[in-house]
Amino acid sequence: MVHNCKYENPDASPPINNYNISCSGPASTPQFIVTVGAMAKVLIGVTGSVASIKLSELLDKLHASVSKVDVKVVATKNACHFLPALTCGPVLLDEDEWRLWRSRGDPVLHIEWADILLIAPLDANTLAKCANGICDNLVTNVIRAWDFSKPIIACPAMNTAMWDNPLTVTQLETLRNLGYTILPPQEKLLVCGDVGMGAMASTDDIVSAVTDAIGRQ
Which of 54, 81, 157, 165 has its CA 20 to 30 A from that of 187? Predict the structure, then answer.
């Protein structure tokens, strides 16, 4: 089994609810800490935008801002292009879903486990899939089966030409109507060298949205 993402798993076939993210590096000092009674369970879907490199920073800030939080990360194959240098713990991939399957009737633990689904970043390709109900990888399968009585937060990230495309406007409206919370991107210098709208929302804003969702539960 070959993973392009950083993947550290001492057990060849652990139960999926034992995957805990443990980030390295100093956490940012939070301006506030949300204290929760029970452990908040956040599932982060990472898709194929260069903004995936913000994953470690996002996890550090989330752990620093919430008193009790358990985080799992699931990534698309394209997201893995940006993740090899990160050391943010195990990342669930398509291969793991097949490897952990035992028989018909197995529980869908990554869906049942989570209280909140955060898609950060949400690339243009996955946005289009979500708007049309396509589920051809582990991330989009999780989204397709998500219980929309629980929060789902999406953080689009793409180049300016994609962001300004009329299809993007239509697809985002579809997601809002389904119950997604959309954190719009920011205008800044993009990786392509252009200055424009399309960079993923700041990790501070993303953590704030997650903590707000935790507080409402």
Answer: 81
